Amino acid sequence: MPHDLPKAYDPTAIEDHWAEYWVRENLFAQSAPDSASATPSGESFTILLPPPNVTGRLHMGHMLNQAEMDILTRWRRMSGRRALWLPGTDHAGIATQMMVERQLTAEGSSRQQLGREAFVERVWAWKRHYGGAILDQMKRLGASVDWQREYFTMDENLSVAVREAFVRLHEQGLIYRGAYIVNWCPRCQTAISDLEVVHEEQKGHLWEIRYPVLDAEGKDTGEFLTVATTRPETMLGDVAVAIHPEDERYLHLHGKKLRLPLVGREIPVILDEWVSRDFGTGAVKVTPAHDPNDFAMGQRYNLPSINVMDDQGKINVKGSAYLGLDRYVARKRIVADLEAQGLLAGIKDHTNNVGHCDRCKTVVEPRLSTQWFVKIQPLADKAIAAVKPDENGKKAINFTPEQYEKTYINWMENIHDWCISRQLWWGHRIPAWHCADCHKITVARQDPTACAHCGSAKITQETDVLDTWFSSGLLPVSVFGWPNITAENRADFDAFYPTSLLVTGFDILFFWVARMIMLGCWFAGDVPMPDGSKRELKDSVPFREVYIHALVRDANREKMSKTKGNVVDPIEIVKQYGTDAVRFTLASMASPGTDIAFNVARTEGYRAFANKIWNAARFLFMNVDKAAEFGITVDPAALGGMPAVDENAPLEARWIVAELHATAAKVNQSLENYRYDDAANTIYQFFWGSFCDWYLEIVKLRLDFPMDGPESEPASEQASKSAGRKAALTTLVSVFEAYLRLLSPFMPFLTEEIWHALYDGNPPAKSIALTQYPRGIATPDEALAEMTLVQDVIGEVRALRKEIGAEEKAVTPIEIRINEQLRPLVQRNTAIVERLARVAEIRYVADLTAGLAKHSAANFDVAVIYERTIDVPAERARLTKDIEKFEKGMAAAARQLGNDGFLAKAPAKVVEGLKKQEAETRLLLEKAQAALAALPTN
Ligand SMILES: [Zn+2]
Ligand SMILES: [Zn+2]
What we know:
Blueprint: H1 11-24, E1 44-48, H2 60-78, E2 82-86, E3 88-89, H3 93-106, H4 111-114, H5 116-130, H6 133-140, E4 151-152, H7 156-171, E5 175-185, E6 190-192, E7 197-214, E8 220-229, E9 240-243, E10 257-259, E11 266-271, E12 283-286, H8 292-301, H9 327-340, E13 344-357, E14 365-374, H10 377-385, E15 398-400, H11 403-413, E16 418-419, E17 421-422, E18 432-435, E19 441-443, E20 459-461, E21 465-466, H12 468-472, H13 475-478, H14 491-496, E22 499-505, H15 509-524, H16 537-540, E23 543-549, E24 552-553, H17 570-577, H18 579-589, E25 596-597, H19 600-629, H20 651-672, H21 676-703, H22 715-743, H23 748-759, H24 782-804, E26 812-818, H25 823-828, H26 830-837, E27 839-844, E28 854-856, E29 860-864, H27 872-897, H28 900-905, H29 908-934
Parallel strand pairs: 1-2, 3-4, 9-11, 15-23, 22-23, 24-25, 26-27
Antiparallel strand pairs: 5-6, 5-14, 7-8, 7-10, 7-13, 9-12, 10-11, 14-16, 17-21, 18-19, 18-20, 26-29, 28-29
């Protein structure tokens, strides 16, 4: 039945082939149940791939994340769920724009030179050419996603969703425009969110500056109030100096005014509880346009805000001596000028926590600007309720590990309004138009030609685009057709929303997970249920489960980083060991909340594991071929489900089937709990231990096909052995076939290859991934208990033999003392003990013979009878008989190989096999002859 597998396991050849096949055959496409094409019935399992940046390349974190998703999706699909894993890429506003801007710089051009329209066209061209390379990598790694549904966040339909969401929130009064302190990147020339700012400790200075105190007439009193600042250049925008109301040093300054050095402006001394008396001098300058705390203070005291920098971080105070200077050049000049005027009281070393742009590493400038915001509160309330238990103690969204729920809720309860505008050209342009006549704003679903307020045609579209996370936050609803969910057009939404699970990293918990929850609950909540009823929160959420995966670290548990040079490139490792071995390595260490120390040695080990499965398959196929010569075949109906054997079957058959059931039950249970490690290790142990070390060794006893084919075995013997051989072969093949299915989500390529070979071009499905996942049922454990006893006996005998230095090939009698109840178990399995422990005879005794090496186990005592003596005449007789046999074999082979007629007709494979057999026999003959010559002559 099966076709031959190549002798050596070569993952590269197998994997390229199947990866291409899975994509070409669209094997993992999934449609909603009531659409035209047939789909499996049952519950959906929907999982959204966290869309990698279109500029991205696969790294180890992706590899882990995707292996985990693929294992779960393949497992759920094989378990009968309508499984959909949906792939796509993110337009990644800043990253992609930067990439193309760098190209332009290299060409001596810039986006400004190109102009907005041409620049955006250029980015699209870049995207068409280079974008999505990471998805090609995913294809090669065999991710079982539905490629027909691949999306890009700037696709037409997804852009419609973005626009609808913006307009709807605006209509609901939840979008506003306001002056706000934002994190400004002078390089990227855009506001960036708090989350995109990386804080780093930096050695800097604390400059102490004297502000002259004025009298009632506005004249210098000769006294100074000294303020401390880390950013002296911002003093150009100072509007006050704040002190703590109870600071005894400054009580006499309450109500006084100061003269701002270098500028000359009069500014008040204000009292604020917020001021820390211990920091610096206890007096702080107030610059509302350039510091978030000062901005808040400015609001409290109704102070003006003076913006002193432009988009590029250059001073833009009209008439100032510093106009046009870069912020750091201005800083130096200002400090020098203050010193020259005797107003610099001191410079102290100071370690500062400085915010940098996550993209370009430029120091972020807190800066006042006009931005678009989402009023977050009503959205956040729903998003909190979705994660907290309801009155029945049920949560609409569950996190694994659970601790992230707390992190999430804590963040959500302290959330600020979300600044959604970015000063970029690449992205979803905000659908708002400014009127040059009435200065009001028109927000519209369709591009307007006139102002909605005054009818003027002098309107221009907002230049800002939306934060990338605004569109990716909508993905769970938008990929299933929102906002166009109509009676005729809702099959996808009904079948796949809410999605079942989100697998993602901690780093985007707030960026993405939280925003999907807010936007999902808000917008899906308006979509009625299929029966027309109102959608409750539990069905509005974008996903029911969130699994936060761990980090992949290096073998020494260090974080991988380019600077440390310890980054493991998944593609390189895959080339070396195969995708299956890498996936298995990650799975074998993946469990909730535990980082993975990626060690190539383990991957090497799992490559060997794959190789072992390959060789077992070859052994199995060889026996199937052999059996066919004896007229024995496996009924195909025995395959594809869970093997069963009757209670009279030999021990090893009952045992391996019971083991398989127990293994399958444990694997399913482990996967339910995201214990990939337990699942993988259980799968590994079963094969390496139970199947190969024990079962295969024992089953050879039952098959026992003579080397020389059916002619060499008497017909009567063949007849009596036939039923046992068929049963043994059936169990062997059906257990192995079920095991392939059990392993398939973990090693999809290897199992696909062997499974197809097993069915030799006539498989019951297009892929093993579309067959049924093994489910274990509780089986009677008598076989397990009986086998344990037999294994114990064999184990003790093997240990004893080692201790007394018995020769490897020596077959020895043993003595065993065992109670009456257990004795029949050993007796029934005499053949197994004899074969696996090299036992000549089992003697049941009441007491072990004194002087023998013995071991005591819980249920028995055992001794090995062995003397290092050779029975010379017996040995001579045995060797002589062997030599005769080998010589006969050689002669037969020589006759066949010398027969031209035979050679002309026989398949090359047969001739090759014969030659090999001849060579082996020759070797055995030579060894036997040498042994005979070495025997002492009496
Ligand atoms: Zn930047
Ligand atoms: Zn107008």
